[in-house]
Amino acid sequence: MDKLINKIKEKNKNFYNIFNINPHKHWHYMLYISIIIIIVLIFFSFFLFYKIKTEKIFKVENIEPNKKIILKEKLLNEIVNSFNQKADNLEKLKNGGIILKDPS
What is the pLDDT of residues 2-61, one digit of tens each? Predict the structure, then answer.
């Protein structure tokens, strides 16, 4: 019975030894984890580069030149007219033809 209790005590001591601060061990752990992360990022970058180079990812689809695009002509003309009116108003304002009222 004493041997069993001693074994359990030893296991508990070993378990709590993990949480003791040892700067050298922790520095090594951080270094190894950083190196592993960098290596994984390098492999992922090469993999992504390969996929882009073989055009399996981020494909750009070409639009056929014969494909017709349907526009609403009335709406297009209204937009063009509004821009023309704005350009005319700007020219009149520059030449002094429009006098703006004071809003106050």
Answer: 777 777 777 776 666 666 677 777 888 899 999 999 999 999 999 999 998 888 877 777
CA distance linking residue 6 with residue 11, whole number of Å: 9
CA contacts within 13 A on the Cβ side of 54 = 6
* Start-end of H helices in the chain: 2-17, 23-53, 73-95
Indicate the DSSP class of residue 72.
-
Residue for token pair 């190894």 = 32
What sign does the CA torsion over 71, 74, 76, 77 have?
A: positive
Asked if 98 contacts 88 with a C-beta cutoff of 8 angstroms, the reply is no
Which residue type, as a one-letter code, is found at position 26?
H
- Whether the full predicted model's pTM is greater than 0.85, yes or no, is no
pLDDT score recorded for residue 19 = 64
Which of 39, 57, 59 lies closest to 49 in space, CA to CA? 57
